[in-house]
Design a protein that fits this description.
This protein is α/β, with parallel strands linked by helices. Helix content is 33%, strand content 16%. It is built from 18 helices and 16 strands. The chain has helices at residues 18-21, 34-41, 51-54, 62-71, 74-82, 88-94, 101-104, 116-129, 151-162, 179-182, 191-203, 220-225, 256-264, 290-302, 322-331, 408-412, 443-446, 451-469, and strands at 143-147, 166-170, 207-209, 230-233, 239-240, 253-255, 282-286, 306-310, 334-336, 339-346, 361-374, 380-384, 390-393, 396-399, 403-404, 438-440. The protein has a 5-stranded parallel sheet. A 5-stranded parallel sheet has the order 6-14-7-8-9. Strands 10, 11, 12 and 13 form a 4-stranded antiparallel sheet that branches. Helix 4 runs antiparallel to helix 5, helix 4 crosses helix 8 (116-129) and helix 9 (151-162) runs parallel beside helix 18 (451-469). The longest helix has 19 residues, at 451-469. Bound molecules: flavin-adenine dinucleotide and iron/sulfur cluster (SF4).
Length: 470
């Protein structure tokens, strides 16, 4: 084996300057150069029993692809990754590696783990630049419908198409990609990367039908009657949650889903946008996950003077990826921890009902919190501190409190069982639902989760569908 790089730290990821990037939608992380990648690959010990692989939800053969980088065989590295993952350029950018593969890497015991995600991204980007495309396989004569074009639907469609199935993806929105295009912002995941993945699937023969809402335009039973022999539901969890506090109907209050979709997909930052968005002033984002970080950093880029994240627990409990929190701080996002809104306050002019400012948000009434006893998940429960009510001025309020699966498909599909939280019930490891020939996976089953787990579910279901039909 070639010499190991003993540096305890990861080779740093080159980033755009914080002040400049806070006002631009350009990708923040620039990506490894060839020499950065060679340096980082040389930190891998090529372990005989690699713990990192057990931490990857789709079991990518991590030491094997890193060994290929060391040999300078980038196409070989790409082939190794592609055996288990169909979206490496996406996963290399957005997977929470720090809680998955990298959390198990032995190099993490006495320093930082190998930058597995950074290397995965490097391989995918280098491969993309080489323009080689998969070949269309021979058809096997079977037809499958996929509902939703997020990572779960795309993965299921890709695996089935590679096995020769004629696959049609039905997508409610006008652009395929799911959260990868309408949720995660351009500065973390450029849309050209998702478009390329979709083009690769088209090259494999996958047919995309956009503006098709299953449950409205067509039902699942109609798809089955129309000759689709199996249906995969990858419709995600797009229904936003609110707090149920007074003032949520005021103008200037958005769900993070709406705010990010308007910005990412509907280009609301343009002056000529058909669906404009409130851009300036003071923005308050409620929540502490990745979605809250994305909404806050988007607000800065849209021109907000001040952006504050309000989170009811302490910094330690923030569910967002550490890296995203650091990037948000560097860009100037402020944080108010142990703080919870109890009401959203609006402007009313009692003397003039036609005053154009009537009904717009002016701020939040909040209460300070302290951490009490742990809840059922072991996280200390936030408890209000009596007498600590105070107001925070805001022109825009964004609720980033999580999402649940949309009930539309359930309500229009007889025999499809869902759980108490709206997730479709499936058999473990296959994605089989309670309805014959219908499979499901991703956020539609688990509720809001991760790209890689949605992909893993799409993969497992593709395998089960092939086993049923071939
Ligand atoms: P989705 O990506 O939600 O795709 C579902 C698709 O189905 C959508 O295109 C939707 O329009 C379509 N659809 C819905 N209903 C219908 C219907 N009736 N008919 C036809 N089509 C329908 N995960 C990470 O791993 N890392 C991150 O950094 C990260 N950041 C995130 C940031 C944001 C802002 C958000 C919202 C999520 C983030 N996630 C992240 C979570 C991750 O994106 C999701 O877990 C993942 O996209 C789920 O994939 P999916 O395919 O199940 O669903
Ligand atoms: Fe390389 Fe770390 Fe995996 Fe070992 S655990 S093979 S050092 S990435």
């Amino acid at each position: 084996m070639a010499k190991v790089n003993t540096d305890p730290k990861k080779t740093p990821m080159p980033l755009l300057d914080a002040a400049a990037r806070a006002r631009s939608f350009d990708e923040v992380a620039v990506g490894y150069s060839d020499s950065d990648a060679a340096n980082e690959a040389a930190r891998c010990l090529n372990c005989k029993n690699p713990a990192c692989v057990g931490g990857c939800p789709v079991g990518i053969k991590i030491p094997d692809f890193i060994a290929k980088i060391r040999e300078g065989d980038i196409d070989g590295a790409y082939r190794v990754i592609s055996m288990d993952s169909s979206l490496p350029a996406v996963c290399g950018r957005v997977c929470p590696q720090e809680t998955q593969c990298e959390s198990r890497c032995v190099r993490g015991i006495k320093g930082e783990p190998v930058g597995i995600g950074r290397l995965e991204r490097y391989v995918a980007d280098r491969h993309a630049a080489s323009e080689s495309r998969a070949e269309r396989p021979a058809p096997n004569g079977h037809r499958v419908a996929v509902i939703g074009s997020g990572p779960s639907g795309l993965t299921c469609a890709g695996d089935l198409a590679k096995a020769g199935f004629a696959v049609t993806v039905f997508e409610a929105l006008h652009t395929p990609g799911g959260v990868l295009v309408y949720g995660i912002p351009e500065f973390r995941l450029p849309k050209s990367i998702v478009a390329r993945e979709v083009d690769d699937l088209r090259a494999l023969g996958v047919n995309f039908m956009t503006n098709m809402i299953i449950g409205k335009t067509l039902t699942i039973d109609e798809l089955l009657d129309d000759g689709y022999e199996a249906v995969y539901i990858g419709s995600g969890a797009g229904l936003p949650m609110f707090m149920g506090i007074p003032g949520e109907g005021l103008k200037g209050v958005y769900s993070a889903n709406e705010y990010l979709t308007r910005s990412n997909l509907m280009k609301a930052y343009r002056d000529d946008s058909a669906t404009p968005i409130m851009k300036g002033g003071s923005v308050a984002v409620i929540g502490g996950g990745n979605v809250a970080m994305d909404a806050a950093r988007t607000a800065l880029r849209l021109g907000a003077e001040k952006v504050t994240i309000i989170y009811r627990r302490s910094e330690k409990e923030l569910p967002a990826r550490r890296e995203e929190v650091e990037h948000a701080k560097e860009e100037g996002v402020e944080f108010r921890f142990l703080c919870n809104p109890t009401e959203i306050i609006g402007y009313t002019n009692p003397d003039d009902r036609r005053d154009p400012k009537n009904g717009f948000v002016t701020g939040l009434r909040c209460i300070r919190m302290e951490l009490g006893e742990p809840d059922e998940r072991g996280r200390r429960r936030p408890v209000p501190v009596a007498g600590s009510e105070h107001e925070i001025p805001a022109d825009t309020v964004i609720m980033a409190l999580g999402t649940t699966p949309n009930p539309l498909i359930k309500s229009t599909t007889a025999g499809l069982e869902v759980g108490a939280r709206g997730g479709i019930i499936v058999a473990d490891g296959t994605g089989k639902t309670s309805k014959a020939h219908v499979y499901a996976g991703g956020d539609a089953v688990t509720g809001a989760a991760t790209v890689i787990s949605a992909m893993g579910a799409g993969k497992a279901a593709a395998k089960a569908i092939a086993a049923e039909l071939l």
